[in-house]
Automatic annotation (TrEMBL):
It comes from Nonomuraea insulae. The lineage of its organism: Bacteria, Bacillati, Actinomycetota, Actinomycetes, Streptosporangiales. Residues 2-80 form the Carrier domain. InterPro entries: ACP-like_sf, PP-bd_ACP. This is Phosphopantetheine-binding protein. SUPFAM superfamilies: ACP-like. Pfam families: PP-binding (PF00550). Gene3D superfamilies: ACP-like (1.10.1200.10).
Length: 86
């Protein structure tokens, strides 16, 4: 399973119960559509750290990295390439 598929499944399970994976596009904006708020971002970050084994520095986080499946996937890929954004 790609990062995007794992991320999508997590978002569907935690924030969009009842929505099918085929209904959630990789560019659907979670923040603009009220799916994920600031507490949701923290929950997502904790899951990303655990699931993808990256260490993220909370003071350097930008909410735009968590708007879509695509932006989250790119953020995780960058974090893994840098040994974690710590």
């Amino acid at each position: 399973m790609s990062h995007a598929d794992s991320i999508k499944q997590f978002v569907l399970t935690e924030f969009l119960d009842g929505v099918g994976a085929d209904e959630l596009t990789d560019d659907y904006d979670f923040i603009a559509n009220g799916v994920i708020d600031s507490l949701g971002i923290l929950k997502l970050i904790a899951w990303l750290e655990e699931n993808f084994k990256v260490l993220l520095n909370y003071s350097e986080l930008d909410p735009t990295n968590f708007r879509t499946v695509s932006s989250i996937d790119a953020f995780v890929t960058a974090a893994q390439g840098q040994g974690g954004l710590s």
